[in-house]
C-alpha cells in the first residue's frame, strides 16, 4: 500500500515509504516464523495452519479498518488502487505459484524474508524466482495474447457477487472463523506438537462469538457517501438548513466579467452537460464530491463555488453535501440552468426580459446573453483537454 494521504507525497518519496514499510513487514514476518519453509509448507500437509490464520486475520483486520475509516470520513476509498483482473491468466498464474509454493516452501515475499537472514534454501528459491521472471520476459511474445485475455478491470469481489459491502464483510468473517475452527481440528489430529493443541477452547469460542457479532455491525454500517447524500437529500434536512442562492443576473455578470473569485460546478449528468454547459464550468456527479482529487478546487475559501444543474434540487443537494464535508463559500444558482437560459440566453425569454424590469436591466441581459453565447461557442470550438484521471494509490501484494 502507498501513503495514507497521497497528495503531499511525491512519487519518489513514495518509494522510500514503500521501502520502509517493506522492511517493517519483513521483520514482522520473520518474527512470526514465516522465514521457515517447514512452517509455510505445513498448511499444505495439514500439520501447521499458522499461515492461514495469520493471513485471514490480516485480511479481516484490514477490511474492518478500511470500512471504519471510510465510515468516519478519514479515508477516501476511491483513492485506493485496485489491481485489474485478467481472469484466466490470474488462475493459471496462481496455480503455478501454488505449485512453486509447495515445492519450495516459500512464496515470493517470505523467500526474500528468509534470504535476508541467510537461509540457503531461500537463496536458491530467490535465484529460481529471478530465472522464472527472466524466462517469462524473454518468452513474453509467445503468451502475450493469453496474458492480455479475459480482462475484467478493477473489479471488487462483492460487486461481482452482487452483495452489499457490509454483507460481504460479515460473510468473510464467518468464513474466517469457520476456517480457524476446522483447520485447528485437522492440525490437532495430524500433529501432536502443533500450536492448536495449546488453544483453550472456551477462550477461543468466546473470541469467535464476539468477532462474529462485531462483524454483524458491518451489515448495517453505511458508507460515508451514502449516509451523507441520504441526509442531504432528506426533506427534514433541506427544511432545517439554509441555502445560499445566486441570481441568474449576478451569475451572468460574473461570467461576462470573468470573475476569478468564482468557480461554476455543474452537477448535471454528463449527457446534459455535453449538450449545454456554462463557460468555465466543471462537471461533477454528486458522489464525486467526496474525492480528494477535487479538494484543491473546493478548499479555496476565497473562491465562491456556484452549484448549477438542470434540476435546481440536485444543486441544492450537492450544496448540502459539500457543506457537510466541510467546504464553505457555496451558492446555488436560483431556478437552475433552465431559468438561466430562459432569462439570459434564449430569445424566447424576451418576454421575461421585458417583465417588470427597467431598461438598464433589459439592456444588461441582452448584452450578457450575446456575450455568453459567444463564450459558449468559443468553448465548443476549443480542443478538448484530455480527461484528468484521478491519482490513485498504487501498490499491492
Record field, number of beta strands: 7
Mean pLDDT: 84
Q: How many helices in DSSP terms?
A: 19
Ends distance: 8 Å
Strand fraction equals 5-15%
| Sheet with most strands | 5 strands, parallel
The helix fraction, in percent, is 55-70%
Q: What is the H/E string?
A: HHHEHHHHEHHHHHEHEHEHEHEHHH
Overall geometry? elongated
Please compute the radius of gyration using only Cα atoms. 29 Å
The parts where pLDDT drops under 50 for at least 5 residues are: none
Strand sequence of the main sheet, in spatial order? 3-7-6-4-5
List the helices and strands and how they pair.
Blueprint: H1 11-31, H2 37-45, H3 50-71, E1 85-86, H4 87-104, H5 108-116, H6 120-138, H7 140-147, E2 151-153, H8 157-161, H9 165-190, H10 201-216, H11 224-233, H12 235-240, E3 245-246, H13 248-256, E4 262-266, H14 270-275, E5 282-283, H15 295-298, E6 304-308, H16 312-325, E7 330-333, H17 336-345, H18 350-354, H19 359-381
Parallel strand pairs: 3-7, 4-5, 4-6, 6-7
Antiparallel strand pairs: 1-2
Description of the molecule:
The protein is mainly alpha-helical and 397 residues long. It is 60% helix and 6% strand. The protein has 19 helices and 7 strands. The strands form 2 sheets. It has a 5-stranded parallel β-sheet. α14 (270-275) links the parallel β4 and β5 (282-283). α5 crosses α6, α11 (224-233) packs across α16 (312-325) and α13 packs across α19. The chain is elongated, with a radius of gyration of 29 Å. The termini are close together. The mean pLDDT is 84.
